[in-house]
Amino acid sequence: MNGYPQVLVSVNHVEPVPRRIRAFLGGRSVVDTTAALYVWEWPHYPQYYLPVADVADDVLVDEQHTRKTRQGVARMYGIQAGDQKRPGAARVLTEPAVDGLADTVRLDWAAMDSWFEEDERVFVHPRNPYTRVDALRSTRPVRVELDGVLLAESPAPVMVFETGLPTRYYIDRTGVLFDHLEPSDTVTECPYKGTTSGYWSVRIGDTLHPDLAWAYDFPTRQLAPIAGLVCFYNEKVDITVDGQTLPRPRTHFFR
Q: Which residue in 15, 126, 226, 231 is a FRET match for 149, CA 20 to 30 A apart?
């Protein structure tokens, strides 16, 4: 058993979205709806399925072919807004295999310039309504090591508890031994935490371990306690909490 709560939602689970959802492309609102649906195409998080009637006029370009998906048979469309064109970026379910998905369209998330829940921008994918992400201050001391080399330690970390993932331990930069870290150009985004401001690889001897640590200098307001702190992937380093060395977990990030 993993030492953290697992994701329990099944594939093709459907729930209503009680939020206004908008997507923009080329400076134009492509869709604006208060009747979106969450559909779990895999257990970790949902996608939006949107009423076709709430897609802006003249945006969908019929590509004259269909595709079979786990949600049913879909007719494929491109999306065009202004001078922006996104071939194959929309699929309209014509023969849904899941109840409640008739007359809905699934837009490719990355094909849009931006997505909003109400008036707040959302990154990467829709926020899972069954996921909690809590940042809590702690006085349980934490040490981070790799191959016996100390990388960071803190007597007062901020612990981030996120449904479906191991606890992450965020450490003040003064507790990080940056002589073992090398800056990376990697940038990642999280729908709950925002956009990373820094990534680091770890060099032990002649071996470089890429992208093991990151920071959010300007996280979302819900995760404000982690601002400027550094975190390491539990899956790739050895973490000791309050004197107990934790087993390295296996997650969908590293298997």
A: 226
Please, what is the end-to-end C-alpha distance for the chain in angstroms? 16
CB 125 within 8 A of CB 109: yes
Residue 64: both structure tokens together: 């004259």
Task: For residue 226, name the pLDDT band (cuts at 50, 70, 90).
Answer: very high
Q: Are 79 and 60 in contact (CB under 8 A)?
A: yes
Predicted confidence (pLDDT) per residue in 188-218, tens digit = 999 999 999 999 999 999 999 999 999 999 9
Residue type at 188 in one-letter notation: T
For 13, the enclosing helix (H) or strand (E) is: none
Question: Using alpha carbons only, what angle is made at residue 168 by residues 163 and 170, rounded to the nearest 5 degrees?
Answer: 140
What is the token pair recorded at 214? 């990151």
What percent of the residues of the chain are helix, what percent strand, and what percent coil, each to the nearest 5?
5, 50, 40
160, two tokens = 């981030």
